[in-house]
Each structure stands twice: as C-alpha cells, then as structure tokens.
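I am writing to request your help with a piece of structural work I have in hand. Thank you for your consideration; the sequence and its tokens are set out here:
=====
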Amino acid sequence: MTLTNDNGVDREMTAKELAAYKAVNDEAIAQQTADEAAQAATAAAKKSAYKKLAALGLTADEIAAL
C-alpha cells in the first residue's frame, strides 16, 4: 500500500501513479549509483596521479601546487 497526499487527504496511489513513482525512483537510484562510481573513479585517478608524480621525485608540496 503506497499512499500519496492529494490536497491534504491521504489516499492510495493508482496503478499509473505507482508505476510513474517507481520509474522515477529507479532512475534516481541508477543516477546515484553512477555518481558514486564516477566519484570513486576520480578518487582512484587522483591517487594514481599522485603516486606517479611522487615517483618522478616531486614533493607533496610540489604536487599540491599543480
């Protein structure tokens, strides 16, 4: 049972409303998952770049200045 508030009155969603709600919710979850994956990839790339620059002999201050 999924309720919606229609002008201050709680009522059950129609099948069409429920389908639309689930579609939007699924899309939001997929977007959040994609955003989290992108953030993880960016963090991994930064860590890799830091290691590579450090291996070239740059100090932490020099790397931060880049």
In short: The mean pLDDT is 95. The first helix runs from residue 15 to 55. The chain has one domain: 3-65.
